[in-house]
Specification:
The chain is mostly helical. It has helices at 3-17, 22-37, 42-53, 60-73, 76-88, 94-110, 113-118, 120-128, 136-147, 157-166, 170-176, 178-198, 212-235, 240-258, 264-297, 300-310, 315-329, 335-352, 357-371, 379-388, 392-415, 418-426. The protein is 76% helix and 0% strand. The longest helix has 34 residues, at 264-297. It has one domain (40-426). Helix 4 (60-73) runs antiparallel to helix 15 (264-297), helix 5 crosses helix 6 and helix 5 (76-88) packs across helix 13 (212-235).
């Protein structure tokens, strides 16, 4: 590693230690690299402009963010919550089971773990804390764990960005997340049932039959969004990027005109919040383009591939090593850094070993979701604590079984790629045999 790369790494690490916004830290580290190399600083603007304006798929990110914020502000979460109470509320630990099912439905609309925790998650935590049998730690742990479904079940913002970085089909990535998402759902509901049985949690009171039609009708319109979204993508009516625009329009029509859930001032608040979140993501992407330029110029990905080749690793050994790497880095680094800095360095090695990029991408995203629910970084833990006041220690004590379950599923997906690849292959996408 030469002096320029040491300068890049040093500035990036110092910036993160000083809690500088990660996008600024990445840009500054790129500038430090160019200064040490004696290259024109105008390369920063060139790389950022080319990266942002030549990537049509990136349009999906702010549109999915906007759709998720609209639904959180438009009573969609409450409507889905009531709908799910009819389906699973009578199971032991009913409200916790409802939260998991709500997360499944909401993930088919937003593609974001943070949006899931801040919207439907907040609704279910408030309901659980009204009942003495649900401890604050357990309520927070269930919400944090179920929020990881957001980027696994399609659509998924991280998968859109991974598709940009890797060149893998976004449609195939979305399909690759379906079976893991179903397995996560079943396993999480099993964990909740186990805990609820051990603690003898009572079942929820039945909802009177005469109330069912109204609740089902209120929930039917929000539930139409995943059907329209995924049906349109896989029927060829629109691309995944165009699907994000459809999702935003669908959420706007439902929230503003059908449900009449907010006024113009609150609508502009949603626009402002979506713009702010999109700007943060765009800044991080901008920083990643200049970092990737530096890594490419110094042949870092090729060196990584040569190193892996020299170790004579099998596909399974490489994937297990990658899992360990991401699980360790996920303790300290933001998802965006892992996705935009480390994934491009590993892709040539994955290609060299013949690993399917859809399989690799879904594994990477699940690794990142696990990183969101364990300290010291654990963004979902911090978001839930900020919204509810539940301590991170309480959530971790109550949530270790969910973490073990996710690690077990990650191992199964690593050993058996068909868990990810069966559905994309069945739908006609070109994936590894």
């Amino acid at each position: 590693m030469n002096t320029a790369l040491w300068a890049l790494a040093g500035v990036l690490v110092v910036g993160m230690l000083l809690r500088m916004p990660i996008g600024f830290a990445m840009l500054m580290s790129g500038v430090a690299y160019l200064l040490v190399k004696g290259q024109d600083l105008g390369l920063v603007a060139e790389q950022v402009s080319n990266g942002l304006y030549n990537s049509y798929v990136l349009l999906a990110v702010p549109l999915f963010v906007f759709a998720a914020n609209l639904m959180n502000a438009g009573t969609v979460s409450e409507r889905i919550f009531d709908f799910c109470r009819i389906l699973v509320g009578r199971m032991r630990g009913g409200l916790a089971q409802v939260d998991i099912l709500v997360s499944v439905i909401f993930s088919g609309m937003s593609g974001s773990a943070i949006a899931d925790a801040a919207g439907p998650g907040l609704v279910t935590i408030r309901q659980m804390l009204k009942k003495p049998e649900y401890t604050p730690g357990f309520a927070g742990a269930v919400v944090v764990a179920s929020a990881t479904l957001g980027p696994i079940i399609p659509p998924s913002i991280p998968m859109v960005i991974y598709g940009l970085v890797s060149g893998a089909s976004v449609g195939a990535l979305f399909l690759g997340g379906v079976m893991p998402g179903v397995l996560m759902t079943v396993l999480m509901m099993g964990v909740v049932h186990h805990i609820a049985t051990q603690r003898n949690m009572p079942r929820e009171a039945p909802i009177p039959l005469q109330q069912w039609p109204g609740i089902l009708f209120r929930g039917a319109l929000p539930l139409s969004l995943p059907v329209v979204l995924l049906g349109g993508i896989y029927s060829g009516a629109f691309t995944p990027t165009e699907a994000a625009a459809v999702a935003a329009l669908h959420a706007l029509v439902l929230s503003a005109f059908v449900f009449r859930a907010f006024s113009w001032p609150s609508f502009w608040g949603v626009v402002l919040e979506s713009t702010r979140a999109s700007a943060v993501i765009t800044l991080i992407l901008a920083g990643s383009f200049i970092l990737n330029y530096a890594f490419t110029a110094e042949a870092v990905p090729q060196s990584m591939a040569a190193w892996v080749d020299s170790m004579q690793l099998s596909r399974l050994q490489f994937l297990l090593l990658t899992n360990v790497l991401f699980l360790v880095l996920g303790c300290f680094l933001d998802v965006s850094v892992l996705l935009l800095v480390f994934v491009p360095m590993l892709l040539p090695a994955a290609k060299l070993l013949g690993i399917d990029l859809v399989h690799f991408g879904v594994l990477v995203v699940l690794n990142m979701m696990i990183g969101l629910i364990h300290p010291p970084f654990g963004m979902l833990l911090f978001v839930t604590k900020a919204l509810t006041g539940i301590s991170i220690g309480e959530m971790m004590r109550e949530g270790w079984l969910f973490l073990v379950m996710l690690l077990g599923l990650l191992l199964a997906m690593t050993v058996f790629p068909d868990i990810v690849l069966w559905l994309p292959r069945t739908m006609g996408y070109a994936v590894a045999p």
